[in-house]
Fold each of these.
Amino acid sequence: MDFLLNNLKQKIQHIDQAQKFIIRDEDRKFVESFVKTFKFSQDFVEPILKFLSHKKPTNLVWLSLSECTGCTESFLRNEIPGIDSLLLEYINLDYHEVLMSAAGFQARENLKKLKKGEYFLVVEGSVCAQQEYFATFGAEASSGAEELLHLGRDAFMVLCVGTCSSFGGVQAANPNPTNTESIDKLIQREVVNIPGCPPSDINIIYTLMYAIIFEEAPSLDILNRPLWAYGKTVHDTCERKAKFESGDFVQTFGDEKMTQGYCLYKVGCKGPYAYNNCPKVKFNSKTSWPIQAGHGCIACSEPNFWDDFGVFETPMTKQNKSFAKEEKKEAVSMQDFYTFVLNLQSHQIGIFLDSKQTQILFNGKNILNFNLELNTHLFLEGLAKKSKLTSRLVENYQTYFPKLYQKNMHNMLDSKISQNPADILLLMHEILSLEKKENTHYFALQEAMSFPFKVVSDMDFSVKVSEDNIVIDTVKGMRLVLCYALGGLEYDGIAYGILATLCKALKEGVSKFIVLKGIKNDVVLGGDLVQNSLIEKWLLK
């Protein structure tokens, strides 16, 4: 942070002081909001104001490819600093087919005057690289791919605004007849993705202004999205989250509970799977956003959201599997525990995930610490006493799944503590099913692998690591089995989420242990539940 501030002060010293603008109240309001959004100290306010009032407007090219202009519409609805400040003071919009007054050859001349490394490129829309005639420009009829390659190569920075340019969008949805793809795949350089259909004006403009002020991108996630905007799920900051936690769901569209703040998961909301800050920034100058208006999130800021999340108005179920892209799950070799231990080298860490016992082995010792109450009566009783929300959750479980509730509450009160993390599948099965299975672990595994979607319903397991052991706590997370079940997610989807979250916890624990001990990353797998490439990927990659 100090580095950014010092760099900014140095840039101010080299700016021509004659290029001064009057600092308006609106400018100060924007800068104060900008500083707060990025969690900078107040020491940044005056230098940023001074920089923006002295600098020459930044050259900006906005290229429209295969798109609907929704991202431009969002951009224009900005209130702070306002589109007038942006276009007249902060940026010099050299090219934008919707907003520029020039047309034809005159408009094309602006592009020819651009100098390498002296302009920012914003791309709206995906690109058809193989069928170039799907997007052509100007009297020369140059293709969108040609324009993008030329402008993207010479730009100081490329920002992909909207899901179409970031990930391909609806144009790239299966079967993708136009062979449309995201921008980075064509230009082969790092880009800043600002996805959404459309993204909010705040996400577009604040990311752009950060890049202009500091001449670098803000911190990005693995998909090159700014972490300040896409670091949390929609669900994390949703105003209806408490109703999800208590199991209070809108049952159908038109349900009066929709206006009472009940959760929309059962009518298709994908908020738990979508990373975006919509609940905070909203749209149209913070007027509203889809969930506030009564429709669930459709995960539009995620790659392949048209294909990977099923029908918009229902949870992800097998009935909608034609919308999903199934993943191949080949069998892999397995070992019994004793063979596994004998073959484990002294420098290796072994993860043995098995229906009989699960261990993390290092230097001949089990370093995994795990305890779980398997008596469903005691589990539900403890959950009901924990808080008002969980009490309401158990009450709703009793209301909507009366037979399951009665079965589980008729269990004896003898405690049954398991030290095998794989037994969370047993507890899940008892909560969700009236059927007794001869081998519940395998049944749950098969159901999980039959789930046709890639999307994981995370169960919020916690991991703590010390010099001697790895502690995995699933007690708090297992409440989500009830939440998702009440929200309409079926057995296979919940089992898939539990297995994925367990593998994630095991991997996280091992990764932190390796860093803490400063040892080589050499992990091997074993156990009867490690029997397909998907679980292997979850544990290793």
Note: The mean pLDDT is 91.
Amino acid sequence: MNKTCRYTSIAIALTLLFGCSADNEQARLVQQQEAMEAQRKAQELTKQRQADEAYQQRHQTEQVLKTQRESTLAEMGTVLQLSSPSLSRVQTMAIMPIPSQPLFENHDNYLDTPSNGVHQTITTPLSTFSIDVDTGSYANVRSLLNSGQRPPADAVREEAFINYFPYDYHEPENRQQPFAVHTEIAPSPWNVERQLLRIALKGYEIPADQRQASNLVFLIDVSGSMHDRSKLPLLVNSLTMLTKQLNENDSVSIVTYAGNAGVVLPATRGDETATILNALQSLQTGGGTNGEGGILAAYQQAQQHFIDGGVNRVILATDGDFNVGMADIDDLITLIEEKRQHGISLTTLGFGRGNYNDGLMEQLANKGNGNHAYIDSLHEAQKVLVRQMSGTLQSIANDVKIQVEFNPVTVKEYRLIGYQNRQLRDEDFNNDHVDAGEIGVGHTVTALYELTLAGDRGQIDALRYQHGHASETSVPTPHANEVAQIKVRYKLPDEKHSQLISKQVELSDLHTRFEQASTDFQFATAAAAFAQKLKTERYVNALTFQEIADIARKNRGEDPFNYRGEFVQLVELAQNL
């Protein structure tokens, strides 16, 4: 009996033990399943939220594109009202609706151009660079912003933003000096410890009837990548505008390249407008991109019809996709430099999205003594090829270099805003064999330096072993009030030896408030701030997009073509992307 009870008790205990274990295991499994279910629901919510955000982004982009297309069509209609009735084919092409652009992976290519750093004057008093009037970066970034995309940092070149806009600088007193040099200095709007120094050049203007005869070769990419309406059709309409500005003293050749290169139109007098337009309108896309063969054929045409004392220029119009032909870009650059030395320059016009090679286009133009522009609309084509035609084609000063020597007694630190890929060694300034940029008829060139004056808080710690050296021995007392000496070297066309201009900036020139500076100074500052904010926040993080827009709006001044008004809209658009 007792034994039976003992066995029964053991059985009951074991049952309770295993039962509790089973219950615990079951509870653990239930908790695990509940946790997995909660995780699955969270993942689904995350995916749904991401899908909703993607939809909103696509919807926003489509709305921006729709607005841009409607604006472009209206703009085309306005321009084409001025066209000859005989150009029915061009009119038909221009007014065709632009289809919706699907979202695609962007393969645009840009050079690595990080913002310039800060230099201490006591160790690096000289800053030397080549001038640059290329505006392609601004137009390209504008195209990206208008399509709802924030531009990659390397797409932003600060100097192109500043120089995109015309400024009311005074011309030189006579043509013996091809440009005038202006300076202005005022506090920075983004940091109370900083000042801004503006250096500005203004080339002389010439009447249209005094423009030099031009031997132009249109080198046109008709490869398969140029099929999009923002490429070849816009290209044809753009060169149509330029063609209408030419006269009997000019000459036009048309060379195309795809898988093979060919001469579509041999040299034709500029006043034979219909012949040139018919050749342009006959162009069709297809094949690879044999850029090498096209450039060789174009330079051959330019050499055969060379105009002594005139403009001899190849105008390369492409999306920059060189994928067939010359494999080594250095060989291409060597060819362009060689032709430049023989008086044939190269201008590059960029078109389209998706595989646009901005880095290559700017580099080729720099080496070819030309300029680079990005054409994203007929409005931009009018600006570059009609309103600024003389400046685009005709140079009045070559190899223009700027060297600034800062006074360590008055300037603690400095930073050049932009011109990263136009930096020169200090010894290159006096070397007439070193290539630099050109100034065209009527061109303005603006450069901005951010300065930290002595007594203000700098961005670099004071040097232990250089303290007192500059103020005691380096700077003679008569120059103690100077901020900087600015030297500009240039060559007149067809001359091999440079000439020198020198100018000093005094502390007494400093405005006490930013608002006291000229309208042009304040607007250029807004353009520089916008570019820096798109590229990197670290130098202008105290200034908001809205504050930049407000500065630009207050200093719009005379704006007959709405360049500055459009800038304000871009800044306000960027803050929402």
Note: Residues 72-104, 469-473 have pLDDT under 50 and may be disordered.
